[in-house]
């Protein structure tokens, strides 16, 4: 019987299977770790910087309003200040306005760097829309503030007061939008942080479970494979012991095509030959000297079967009346 799958090949397949399981577990852990790192990197590169810039937008917007109110108080005073103090507050207002628009531009750049296929694209788009409204309304408020100051400077107090009420309404809406942006980005950071923690816990749990499963599966798989290879050897050894005890009725089934299967087939052929010779010896031993059967019939190639000279003693005898008796008997009875 030809060997189809060698024992070395089975051992190699077992090793490759365990290695593949280890590689799959490692790849899974690496993928999950990569996703976790990507989430943490996203928090660090987008959410936290955006939250910081939006906070600066809100602070600079409030500082610009305070600078405007300070400027307005100087203009509407009983004795309007036109000296250095007015120049300082004007410079402060201008600086806060420039910082506000600069922060808006930085926030817009961060938002536009967000991929459109990201899982949080919808929420980032809503923040982007609010930022555009804040940018537009900030410019509108700045224009209204300039008109209020101009009308107060020309003593058009009634129109200036009407514009001031309109300004307060615009300012309230603007602050609400800035607050909503801050709330949305804070919620986004909270959800992303919670999701990252949850993924980290899941990664630890899955890694422990997958590792335990891999170890258990590897042990069971190795045990089953080794048993499949060792069990035929044990059966073959049992058959050898039976033959040693003289039991030639043993016949071991061949259940594999490896070296053990070939050896088992050869063992069965050997037992068949021994059984055949035993049967021949028992049959001819009834009529021929067992020594002759063993040397001549069972070992036809032995050197003792060749012609040769021997020193022997021959005795001739006859039975009284044997001839007459044999004439009346069949060949079998003789």
Mean of pLDDT: 80
Q: Sketch the topology as an H/E string, one letter per element.
A: HHHHHHH
Kindly provide the radius of gyration, computed on alpha-carbon positions and rounded to a whole number of angstroms: 53 Å
| Major sheet characteristics | none
Q: What percentage of residues falls in helices of 4 or more residues?
A: over 70%
Your description of this structure?
The chain is an all-alpha fold. The chain has two domains: 7-224; 248-303, no CATH class. It contains seven helices and no strands. The protein has helices at residues 7-75, 84-112, 121-153, 157-244, 259-284, 290-297, 322-327.
Nutshell version of this structure?
With 334 residues, the protein is mostly helical. 78% of the residues lie in helices and 0% in strands.
Structural features:
334 residues; mainly alpha; 2 domains
Please render the helix and strand layout as text.
Blueprint: H1 7-75, H2 84-112, H3 121-153, H4 157-244, H5 259-284, H6 290-297, H7 322-327
